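QA checklist item 7 of 12: single-chain prediction sanity check.
[x] sequence parsed
[x] length recorded as 407
[x] structure emitted
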Amino acid sequence: MTTPLPLAGIRIFDLSRILAGPTCTQLLGDLGADVIKVERPGQGDDTRKWGPPYVKGKDGEDTTESAYYLCANRNKRSIAIDLANPEGIALAKRLIATCDILVENFKVGSLAKLGLGYEQLKEEFPGLVYCSVTGFGQTGPYAERAGYDFLAQGQGGIMSITGDPKGQPMKVGVGIADVMTGMYASTSILAALRHRDNTGEGQHVDVCLLDCQVAWLVNEGTNYLVSGKVPKPLGNEHPNIVPYAVFETGDGHVILAIGNDAQFERWCDHAGAADLKADARFKTNTLRLENRQALYDAMPNYTRKKTTAEWIAGLSKIAVPCGPVNTIDQVFEDPQVQARGMRIEMDHPVAADGVVPLIANPIKFSRTPPQYRHAPPTMGQHTDEVLAELLEADAAEIAGLRDKGAI
């Protein structure tokens, strides 16, 4: 007998788009929630147009399904509803009545103008967990501003400590503020569901990009709070550990992440760097921090003597943390990544070969692993199906909603 997924029976009315909200709802969908993705007729999620690349269709031409959209929208069913139409709003409320969770990332106050704000819905749906994902939160002087990942990375400090110390401030290479906000939102929703199940009481969850970006300053943020010293960018180096950096090898680069004195001594022995092992300036991590540049100037004389593969093979045997700097193609060719099943394929109705490649959910459960039930949907793909299933709407009613412009 198949064990039900952890969130089987939970339904989400998903009014989010772009990346933060969709990351949250995709994760919950992977864990079994029924995610009803609401899109504007004829427009859809903004990221559908964020290409190329696009999925190639059966005619060899680009479809309207961008790779960006695919990354955060599997395990959802798409329904097209016009929330600018009173009939569409009425339909939305009927569907919300069948849901446990509402996730939205509209500007503060926008849904309230449509009668779909938390304060307007909580009396009618007291058990509803209503999660708002915004740039700056529901309160404070910036609450009404639009928020984007890039802005959050800049304002939240991560760009000031990322990249070449001699270069301009640098963002992370993916929309990490959006992704982490989606992670915080999903955790918050699960906690709110636990409370709802215990008390019957829903609540408003307020999660924003700036708060989450500040939260994941983690050690560097706390370094500042404790010391009063403003952290600076260190490139690939670590503020508290030396040596912890990328080094040139005989044929490329290797990462060394040497976290304690014993590991450093083993590296010196393996490298034949007796002089560095004996040097009083490098005996402890505290001393190595004080003499960071001197050590980093000396180490390449040794790291260039072996290839990247030789370093990884040799150091792995003596428990000195090391690794390659993979390009994205090398990531998906890595035997460990392949063994962990991090690349999947899902059937897709418009793709040329009938499938689309996706990145797997990284969570591994012993009893209830994530399941990939729905490929990222085409816009409005499930409108009729959802209305018939959730509202028992027949063909005539659905046709009437179309005639009224609600769907």
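[x] summary fact logged: Residues 11-216+340-403 form a domain with the Rossmann fold fold (CATH 3.40.50.10540).
[ ] second reviewer sign-off
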